Amino acid sequence: MSHNRSHFITRIALATAVAGMALIAVPGTAQAATANNVSVVAGAKTAPGQPKFGDQGAHVVAVQQAILRNGFTLKGGATGIFDKRTLTALKTFQKVVGLKVTGVVDAATAKVLKVAAAPTTTPAPSTTAAPTTTVAPTTTVPAITYPLTAQTLPVRGNRGDAVRVVQTALQRAGMTVRGGIDGMFGSGTTSTLQAFQTAKGLPVTGLLDTATASALALIAPAPVPAPVAAPVAAPAPSNFLTTLPVRGNRGNAVVVVQTALVAAGITVKGGVDGVFGGATTVAIQAFQTAKGIVATGKLDTRTGIALGVVAPPAVQISVFPVQGPCSFENTWHAPRGGGRLHIGVDIIAKEGNLIYAVADGTITKTYSTATDRLAGNGVRLTTANGTYFFYGHFKAIAEGITVGTKVKAGQVIGYNGKTGGTNTPHLHFEVHPFGGEAVDPTAIVAAVDACNVTTPLPIP
Fold first, then answer.
1. Whether the predicted pLDDT of 193 surpasses 90
2. The pLDDT of residue 119
3. Measured on CA atoms in the order 236, 240, 244, 248, is the torsion positive or negative?
4. What letter does residue 81 receive in the DSSP assignment?
5. Which domains does the chain have, with CATH numbers?
6. What is the DSSP code string of 341-356?
């Protein structure tokens, strides 16, 4: 009942890990050299204007960013402090590129790293016999330039120079970009970003977020917060509920709901007492009626979001995808035949019920029983930001709906059926944010649940 996808992230991540080990463990390196990896070679001379071990400031940041730009790992990032971690990374860089491993930014190292010397100015000696003040030398470090900003990071589906910059940075970091540096942000670049994120211990999203961009030295790192004298108080806990209380429950979750009802101007007979009884049920019904929600008196996801006690889903749709009556439940990652996991939500409805576009977008792919034995007849609807919705098991695709068709939210795009790998009429519905991996769509459809609406929607 699901649309299977194949993933290669583990294989790529393993290759990345092996490549990373090759950079650190150089064959033939003596054990003593490893033990001495955090020491500076005696007599080694730091190039004029370059930082030394123990220094702090912008000139240290320049060196650290140069190390990162060359694809080497620096634990903690560009902190502006020339500490043991920076020393270790510097010596690793020198070893790999064939420089003398000194642990200092000597002239040869500065040249390969392409870091300019920090110019210094020394005041001219005074002609008076006894100067009354001494002018401290000042140091000016050239500003570090980054190819991108947080506002210009490309997303999947983009093309152009910004994408080439990202692909080049991934390649410089030791990643193999499937498809090469072609300036197209597609599945190849997405999977390479996932491999890089895996290697760096970042959340594996395949998206070029600011943390990933900073690790690739594409944007300036976030400033290091200044130390504080006293512990900073933790932020107040969120009132969002993860488990919705039902009639008969007691406790803090009920208090949260009752407090939200009162704040919305709804009278809760008996007050905020933490008991989900008849009074709370009646109050929820009154709130649902005021918001145009079916007045069941039950705290469902849609009511919880409207009350502000349930977090809205990351992806939001404006129309429920199936004409009622219907039903659904959370079967995310339920086991399926052949070792597959369910990556959608199944909305059970009569064969022939209308299927709607959940958002404005473009039909970017169609499926048929002749080409996909699992999906059967269906479509892929893609929005402007690359997010797409996969619909499967249609009885038939609506007339005029084909690849390239622009559709509006609420427009009929098909009819519910049981084609493909199912015997039960239902819609299999998947959500892929920004064109990436599927996410649990249950809360997304529950936020606009309209299984009780049997009248066809007006033509948008």
1. no
2. 54
3. positive
4. B
5. 252-307 (no CATH), 326-446 (2.70.70.10)
6. B--SEEEEE-TT-EEE
